[in-house]
Structures are given as structure tokens and as C-alpha cells.
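Quick one:
INPUT:
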């Protein structure tokens, strides 16, 4: 008994004499009474020993730990010891438990911070945009003046109108915005996951908080590019994602919501699972013909079972895209990986400026005549027998390539009840055209423009009877001035006449050709007949087409609906079109009016009353013009 008592006293002295280990010397506070583990278990240090050799020799890790849980009312349901359960655990087991717990915690954290992705896809953060490296600690605004602003762009989101959907994109998902004009004279947004979208940005200003704390509000017209800093909390990659390339150059990633159903030559429907398809290539044209390549190496040809494809974008919004806009649906993991890493390059065709005086080439008249003759051959080929003939009004006054437009009165704008009407199309007013004039039977072609100016700035080349595009308002005026000078020198012009752009009133008067309906051929509420009269997004194949290959309006004018937007002389009046023919000579503002719609736009934009505006310096691949020959005004 004495020996036992002495041993107990010695044990107590050791426990008192042994120095306590500071909390910060042990992980999770182990060693000091009251320290806690990540699980909330309270630990007591009972012996000074470091069996794993972690840290210095002074490190005191528990060899035996007591896990204690007080019991209510002093009850001991297990009947063990002093009223609370005591479990003795060897230190190596405890250390193993703690290390496994720590490893599991780190794995869980990593999974939370790094989104899961499909094999071969990767999370993909775009580090370079528009050939500029994205910073990790600041946003950049590059101004057209050459100035660079650094700080934080505080616009929380950006509303973006594309040709296929209106989107609202959070700023945190963007990599950059190019304001200098894309292929189609629109802004270009590139997202952090490599998507490319072209369209029109809605916010008129960008706000950036500078590094000194002050805020600067900058008009979008003054901005060249906006570069957003790299962030690491991007949305996870959906393993079902597909890469969708559009004909206008846009690139999207997302999952197809509905199964792709194909119809073969025998009208048999064959739905395919997404997982079976590697790529789907869509041929341009009104019929959605496709070639599907399956993952087993087989190919299948036919047409889509529906006109539209529903897509859930990785960016969040759900969109419905007409088949004619889509070039390829690519389900290969390596294609998505290239997109997200930046290997899938975004390139822009540089603008071609007409910034030097040009020499007027010889033979302008012959080129214009040949272009008109070629347009007539296109008409005969495309319209065929049974097509409506030209109206006989004043045909005796027509000139080569020009149609006589008599004076008259009409209602300018659209009535409030017109379907798909825009707010800038009214109120309607009675407008009087008090003089007759000649208007180009077709839009100015690439051959005609080259003959007068000496270059062809168009994006869509090959057939020079396509309309000229990527010409600014000033370029169009220059063309008219040089053409006037050439024909005047050759004695071809009527006395006191000159070539110029039409005013809005003249353009709509000629487009309507005496009609009051949405289109010059009728209301066409469902747009079922538009494809016979216009090149628009539903049939253009995402390109311009030779002039004069759709049906003319009642006065014999071609492509007044679609193909390319047409510059007007007027400055932009946001409320409604100007009433008189002389209003357009006003030099106010930097915006000018364009009419008629284009290959890039839906049918509603091709209506007779629809209006749009562009900067007079804009050069777009869906923006051209036609001329009028009219009396000079004092």
C-alpha cells in the first residue's frame, strides 16, 4: 500500500511539474485542456511524448488521449469510472485519425474551390484576350485617345443584344469587350470561358473606380477596349457542354436542351443521344440539312427535325438559335479545352479605310451598265417563270441602273397597331415628296464601287455583284461625289442634278411604292413570304448575296428589304424619321440613319418602316448603300 501510495504521489508530482505545452505548438489546440479538434472533441494531454517525431523535441503530443463528454445530472449510463465514459486511445491511432481527417478536409476544400469538369475539358481560364494579357489585380479601360485607366470596373452587369437573344451578362464572367467594331460593326464580348458574342451593348457609359479611389464615368464611344481581371470563382464546366460555332463568327458553349432529331431521305426520324454525337455540320440554306459524325466513326446525313435549337449556355441564359445561324455543333472535349485556354483564336478582319484621294477609273458607265445587266441575269435565274413583272409607271424615264420615282405623298412611319413595330417609327406623319428623282435599282455593288473608288473594302468577296459593304457614311458620300464628277465630265448628267444618298423620307417612300402594309408585298405576319423578297437571317446563309436575286417591289426596286442596311443622308432623329427631303442635309451629331434590314437580322428588321442608326464612321459587313440622282437644292 505504501509503495502504491508513493507511486500515485509521484505520478501527481510529474503531472504538476511537467511544463504545459502552449496551444500554438500543437495542431488544432491539442495539448492544453480545453483545446478542440475540428470535430469539437475536447482533448487532454496526459504524457509528454512525440511518437511521430513532428516538430522539435520539446513538442508534446499526446500518447494517450481521453475523449470526455459530460453527462447530464452526473449520470453514467455505461457505469464506468467516475460518472463519465473514458476511452483510452493509443497515440499513433489518434495521429492517424487526425491526419486522415486533415487530408479529407483539404480534398473537400479543393473540390469546393475547383469546379468539377469533364475529362479532357479542364476549368480553363482565359489569360489573354484581344492579344492582351489579363491582369490578376486590376481592370483596364483602353481609350481611343491612347489613355489607359486602371482600377475596378463597377458596372455589375452588361445588357447585350445579339442577333439571336437579348442577354444580361454579369461583369464577373467577362474577359474583355472590344468597342472598336467587330466584323459586323458590333461590339464583341469575350467571356472568361472563351465564348465570343457580337452585338450591341446597352449601357451608354462604363464606370471605373481608379486606384486612388475616385470614380470615372466614360462614354462607350470613347472606349477602345475593356479588359477584366482574372478571377478564380467561375462557374463549373458542365460535362455535357458542346461548342457551337455560328456563321457570324460567334462561338458559344453550352448543353443542348432537346435531343437533335434528324430526318433522312425517306422521312424517317432518327433521334440521337448527345453522347453519341461528335460533330454536327449544318449546311447554309433554308432547309436545315446536316451531316452528323458519330463517336463510333459513322456519319449520318439528312435534315433537322425542327428549325430551332434550344441551348443552355454555360454562362447561364437559355437561348433558342435558328438553324441557319449555326455552322457546327462540336462535342469533342479537346475543342472545348482549346476554347477555354485561348487556343481557339478570335480574329477580326481589319477595316479598310478610304482615306486618300483616288483616281476615277475609265469606263465607269460601262461597268455600271454591265453590273445592271448581270443583276438582270440573276433576276431571271432566281425568279423564273410566273414572277411578277415590273410596274410600268414612268418606265420611259428610267436610266441605266436607275428607276424613276415620281413625286407624291405618303404616311411616313408605322401605325401603332403594326406587329413588331419599334418605338422610333412614330408617330406617323404625312410626308410629301415634291420632286421626282432616280433611285438605284439595286444596292451599289462591289464592282461599281471599285470602278469609282479603286478598291473593294467588302468582307464578303468572290462575286463582285454582291453589294459593297464595310463602307462608312463618309465613304458613301465620297462615292457619290466622284460618280457625279465622272458623269458630269462625260456629259451624262441631266442639268442641275447630282448623285447623293436618299433621305429617310425618300427611302421609305420608294420602298413602300404606294403600299401601306408592313412590307411592300403585304403584311406577312408570319414572315412566310419574306424569303422570296429579301435576304435575311432565315435564308442568307450568314452572308451577303448578289443583288437583284429576290423579287422586286411594285416600283421595280430590288433588295429594299434585306441583304445590307442602306445608309441614308439624314442624321439620326431618335423619335421618328424626318418629314421632308431636305432635313438630311443637317450635319448635327455623329449618328446617321440606315434602313432596310440585312442578312444578319430577323424579318422584323426588314419592314418598310424599321429604322436603325450607326456612327457615320462605322464600317460593317452588313451595311452598304444605294444612290439617288436628284436635282441640286439651293
Amino acid at each position: 500500500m505504501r509503495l502504491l501510495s508513493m507511486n500515485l504521489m509521484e505520478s501527481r508530482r510529474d503531472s504538476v511539474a511537467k511544463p504545459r505545452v502552449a496551444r500554438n505548438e500543437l495542431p488544432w489546440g491539442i495539448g492544453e485542456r480545453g483545446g478542440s479538434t475540428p470535430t469539437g472533441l475536447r482533448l487532454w494531454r496526459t504524457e509528454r511524448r512525440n511518437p511521430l517525431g513532428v516538430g522539435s523535441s520539446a513538442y508534446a503530443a499526446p500518447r494517450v488521449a481521453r475523449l470526455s463528454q459530460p453527462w447530464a445530472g452526473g449520470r453514467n449510463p455505461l457505469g464506468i469510472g467516475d460518472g463519465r465514459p473514458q476511452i483510452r486511445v493509443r497515440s499513433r491511432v489518434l495521429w492517424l485519425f487526425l491526419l486522415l481527417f486533415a487530408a479529407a478536409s483539404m480534398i473537400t476544400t479543393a473540390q469546393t474551390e475547383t469546379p468539377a469538369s469533364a475529362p479532357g475539358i479542364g476549368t480553363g481560364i482565359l489569360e489573354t484576350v484581344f492579344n492582351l494579357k489579363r491582369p490578376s489585380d486590376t481592370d483596364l479601360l483602353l481609350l481611343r485617345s491612347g489613355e489607359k485607366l486602371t482600377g475596378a470596373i463597377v458596372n455589375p452587369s452588361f445588357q447585350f443584344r445579339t442577333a439571336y437573344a437579348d442577354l444580361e451578362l454579369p461583369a464577373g464572367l467577362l474577359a474583355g469587350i472590344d468597342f472598336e467594331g467587330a466584323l459586323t460593326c458590333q461590339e464583341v464580348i469575350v467571356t472568361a470561358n472563351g465564348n465570343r458574342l457580337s452585338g450591341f451593348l446597352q449601357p451608354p457609359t462604363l464606370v471605373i473606380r481608379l486606384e486612388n479611389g475616385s470614380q470615372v464615368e466614360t462614354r462607350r464611344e470613347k472606349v477602345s477596349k475593356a479588359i477584366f481581371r482574372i478571377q478564380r470563382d467561375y462557374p463549373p464546366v458542365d460535362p455535357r457542354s458542346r461548342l457551337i460555332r455560328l456563321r457570324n463568327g460567334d462561338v458559344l458553349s453550352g448543353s443542348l436542351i432537346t435531343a437533335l432529331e434528324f430526318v433522312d431521305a425517306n422521312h424517317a426520324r432518327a433521334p440521337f443521344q448527345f453522347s453519341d454525337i461528335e460533330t454536327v455540320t449544318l449546311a447554309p440554306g433554308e432547309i436545315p440539312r446536316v451531316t452528323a459524325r458519330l463517336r463510333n466513326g459513322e456519319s449520318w446525313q439528312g435534315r433537322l427535325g425542327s428549325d430551332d435549337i434550344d441551348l443552355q449556355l454555360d454562362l447561364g441564359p437559355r437561348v433558342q438559335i435558328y438553324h441557319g445561324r449555326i455552322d457546327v455543333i462540336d462535342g469533342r472535349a479537346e475543342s472545348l479545352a482549346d476554347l477555354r485556354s485561348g487556343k481557339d483564336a478570335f480574329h477580326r478582319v481589319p477595316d479598310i479605310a478610304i482615306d486618300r484621294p483616288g483616281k476615277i477609273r475609265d469606263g465607269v458607265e460601262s461597268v455600271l451598265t454591265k453590273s445592271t445587266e448581270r443583276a438582270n441575269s440573276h433576276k431571271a435565274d432566281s425568279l423564273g417563270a410566273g414572277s411578277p413583272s415590273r410596274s410600268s409607271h414612268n418606265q420611259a424615264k428610267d436610266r441605266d441602273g436607275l428607276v424613276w420615282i415620281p413625286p407624291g405623298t405618303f404616311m411616313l412611319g408605322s401605325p401603332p397597331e403594326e406587329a413588331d413595330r419599334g418605338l422610333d417609327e412614330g408617330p406617323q406623319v404625312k410626308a410629301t415628296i415634291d420632286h421626282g428623282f432616280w433611285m438605284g435599282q439595286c444596292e451599289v455593288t462591289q464592282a461599281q464601287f471599285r470602278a469609282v473608288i479603286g478598291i473593294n473594302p467588302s468582307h464578303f468577296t468572290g462575286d463582285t455583284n454582291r453589294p459593297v459593304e464595310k463602307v462608312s457614311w463618309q465613304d458613301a458620300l465620297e462615292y457619290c461625289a466622284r460618280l457625279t464628277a465622272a458623269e458630269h465630265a462625260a456629259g451624262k448628267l441631266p442639268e442641275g442634278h447630282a448623285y447623293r444618298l436618299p433621305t429617310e423620307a425618300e427611302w421609305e417612300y420608294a420602298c413602300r411604292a404606294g403600299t401601306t402594309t408592313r412590307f411592300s408585298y403585304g403584311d406577312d405576319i408570319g414572315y412566310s413570304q419574306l424569303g422570296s423578297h429579301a435576304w435575311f437571317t432565315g435564308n442568307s446563309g450568314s452572308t451577303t448575296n448578289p443583288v437583284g436575286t429576290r423579287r422586286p417591289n411594285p416600283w421595280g426596286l430590288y433588295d429594299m428589304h434585306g441583304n445590307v442596311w442602306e445608309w441614308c443622308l439624314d442624321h439620326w432623329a431618335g423619335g421618328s424619321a424626318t418629314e421632308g427631303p431636305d432635313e438630311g442635309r443637317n450635319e448635327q451629331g455623329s449618328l446617321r440613319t440606315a434602313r432596310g434590314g440585312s442578312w444578319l437580322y430577323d424579318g422584323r428588321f426588314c419592314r418598310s418602316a424599321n429604322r436603325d442608326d450607326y456612327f457615320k464612321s462605322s464600317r460593317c459587313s452588313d451595311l452598304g448603300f444605294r444612290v439617288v440622282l436628284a436635282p441640286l437644292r439651293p
